[in-house]
What does this fold into?
Amino acid sequence: MQHVMPAAGLRSDFAAALSGRDGSGPPISRSRLDNGLEIVVIPDRRVPVVTHMVWYRNGSADDPLGQSGIAHFLEHLMFKGTERHPAGEFSKVVSALGGQENAFTSFDYTAYFQRVAPHHLERMMEFEADRMSGLNFDEAVVAPERDVVLEERRMRVETDPSAQLSEAMAASLFVHHPYGIPIIGWMHEIEGLSRKHALDYYRRFYSPDNAILVVAGDVDPADVIRLAETTYGRNTPHGDRSERLRPREPEPRAARRVSVADPKVEQPTLQRLYLVPSSRTAGNREAHALEVLAELLGGGPTSHLYRTLVLESGRAVNAGAWYMGSAIDETRFSAYAVPAAGVSPAELEPEFDRAIASCMSRVSEDAIERSKTRLIAETIYSLDSQGSLARIYGSALAVGETLEDVRRWPEDIRAITRDDLAEVAQKFLTSRRSVTGYLLKDTSC
Amino acid sequence: MQHVMPAAGLRSDFAAALSGRDGSGPPISRSRLDNGLEIVVIPDRRVPVVTHMVWYRNGSADDPLGQSGIAHFLEHLMFKGTERHPAGEFSKVVSALGGQENAFTSFDYTAYFQRVAPHHLERMMEFEADRMSGLNFDEAVVAPERDVVLEERRMRVETDPSAQLSEAMAASLFVHHPYGIPIIGWMHEIEGLSRKHALDYYRRFYSPDNAILVVAGDVDPADVIRLAETTYGRNTPHGDRSERLRPREPEPRAARRVSVADPKVEQPTLQRLYLVPSSRTAGNREAHALEVLAELLGGGPTSHLYRTLVLESGRAVNAGAWYMGSAIDETRFSAYAVPAAGVSPAELEPEFDRAIASCMSRVSEDAIERSKTRLIAETIYSLDSQGSLARIYGSALAVGETLEDVRRWPEDIRAITRDDLAEVAQKFLTSRRSVTGYLLKDTSC
It folds into this structure.
């Protein structure tokens, strides 16, 4: 267990990072510009680097009906230049400054970030504020970039049976909510995305009052706020203030199964999704219990699923579980197993089901405590990266959690009991809430 | 086969009804009022009765996101009175005149009809035009009626495992399109329907330019149009002219399975849905081929599925198939089998699959011809009812088909060949496009 026990120094960093009250620096600061831009500054003096992120409170689940993929398409277009800066200039500058940049689109948010030396922060803010309002929507840019996205989908999904199974399972799990639609979008809807769609979407969501600026690093909060005022402060709010329209899933009643058979499949797998509450739809206790349960059930080689199916029976070569807890609406809890040679997913399934069902009656108190320690420790390690630190705060705020939720997280996880785990396991890991997936080798052709 | 061969008299009636050109009366007339109301008059002098229908081009698939069930809720509210006529008066008048009335909500349309003696037609039009614009939306009416709908759902779905399986299968078949949402709505969304939702919906859709008036009976088209002008003509158009927003399904890639187990189940069943084109998304030839295929595969005791599974092997006690061809968007083709005592749905499934797969290679030319004759004959018989006659035209026009499509239907069905059938069977009845459902007895409690 050596590798998951945090060193004392890290533990102290963790507390410092999460509370901002280690005495060595200013606390985490949260403020708001007049135009609605929310600002969070996270002191992190360990390295002479600053992480600059802008989080927009819109993700693929906010894509208008029939325009799936548009959040992700906008993420692409954000790199295609503005009226003031031609395509590629921003990226070239980041690179020339020895920095890094990236962006990602999730179900609930879209985020952009750069990592540079602290004295370049203002320049990053100028560029980022500029593309928040002055993006170039020339048809000459939009149409070729749509082709890039189509190609991305072709590469990632259309030629990958495993991705196809994931999409089909999510579509079966979420019968009503847009979490069932792939982030990248359905092929035929990406094909239909137009310049007008992109522009309407940009005008609706790319507005300072829909964004959160997260700056982590060796910076003074007052400096960051001042810089934000002279850069982002010039952006006029124009976002659609209407509430995110998120239909709620009906109560699940039917066990569902999905299978994809393809000649390209080399390794069949057995997968399972359950519809479960997220940190926002459940009380924290239920969401945290599901986090611990995923770790206990399927977090690595000491987990219950791995021990039972791989080490004890040998009928699987891998097994695990995960929980997507940070989400605005009801979310997914997943378990999976990779059958050993000669064992089909269908043959493995009864044993897999028994392993899931027996988890809480078979694990020791010690295993539960180790799971909690592991979860917390993994987060501590991830905080070594300033990017992860900023990401934890940004994603939490973007889905509507509070700084206090983040700060309390380790003690909340510690407080989870065996009864909490047994309760969520019994309540949510039921066949009625489930989709079972088989990835199979198609040998008919 | 005696019972499916139409009598010469009926055949002539059929041609007359479909073409309106039997020489004995005026042809079917189609016109439009200035306010956009479309009018179709179908001469039918067989009985001294008139059928008066109003079709609105909005059904449950047009329910705004998060407000599932509102089309059906409006259908209920349409019986709750207007400013001029209190709740129940319209129904009382129809009944006092010896008439009949009803209403129905489908995926693509909502319709209201009365059947009365021809000289009462004007009175029906007055009432119907009145509730097209003057509906009562007092909270005292809306809230109790919502409870009525909730009770209807409880009775029809919540306590019926078979209805739950149907809902879950449709939700799995349509991963993106609202045909996957039940017409009556999801329970938690019906609960949320407010007076404001209902009023907004009514204002958007209940407008003369969104409606089709269909009058069948012993009437003169000129008289009907004159009456329509003095009644419906007073309604002001105010509908939302925006196109119906109907997302297209992604290309299906995964075979899906759904099972519902319940102690109340007495008779397990095996069900299958395939995503297939409708009359509007396919060319007529494909849709008509699917109609014939459903009849050939599962239309009654001479069909291929029944013969194979019930008469030959005896492993099922019933089997059949149907196709919901008249729809705006991609639709469902269904096949089912009821296993014999001691046979589980899972045990029956391989044989069921083989029967579906072997259909086109095993049926005779004669069986194909008989299926087409049967289909056409069933429609002829249904035309004996004036209500069915009006309904065929109303539903066709409401989903965007033309009078010519209806007129040509018998000859189009006749023209379908074995090759057409083999082509649609191979193209659409594939596991990737399918959802398989098991209704099972839960014996665990």
Remarks:
- The interface with chain B takes residues 65-66, 68, 164-165, 167-169, 171-172, 175-176, 180-181, 186-189, 245-248, 250-251, 253-261, 437 of chain A (CB under 8 Å).
- The first helix of chain A runs from residue 8 to 19.
- Residues 1-15, 17-25 of chain A have pLDDT under 50 and may be disordered.
- Residues 129 and 232 of chain A are 5 Å apart (CA to CA).
